[in-house]
Amino acid sequence: MAARLATLLVVAIVAATLIAGLIVGAQHDDSSGPVDLIVHNAKVYSADDLGSTAEAIAIRGNTILHVGSEREIMRYRRKQTTVIDAKGASVIPGFEDAHVSFIAGGRARDGVQLFGASTLDEIEARLTTWAEARPDAPWISGGGWSYDAFADLPSRAQLDAIVSDRPARLLSQDGRALWVNTKALEAAGISRRTPNPKGGAIVRDRRGQPTGLLKDAAMALVDRVLPQPAREERARALQLAIRDAQQRGITSVQDLGAASGDLDLYDSARDAGRLSLRVYAAVPAGHTPPQDLDSIARRYPDDPLLKTGVVALPAQGGADPQTVAALDARGWQVALDASDERGVRLALDAFAAAARSAASAKPRRHRIEGVDLIDPEDLPRFATLGVVASMQPLDTAGGLFTWSKLAGPERAPFGWAARSLSAAGAHLAFGSGWPRLPLEPLGTVKAAVKRDEMHTHEELTLKSAINACTSGAAWASLDEHRKGTIKPGMLADLVVLSTDIFRGPAALEAAEVAMTIFDGRIVYRRPS
Question: What is the pLDDT of residue 24?
Answer without folding.
Answer: 43
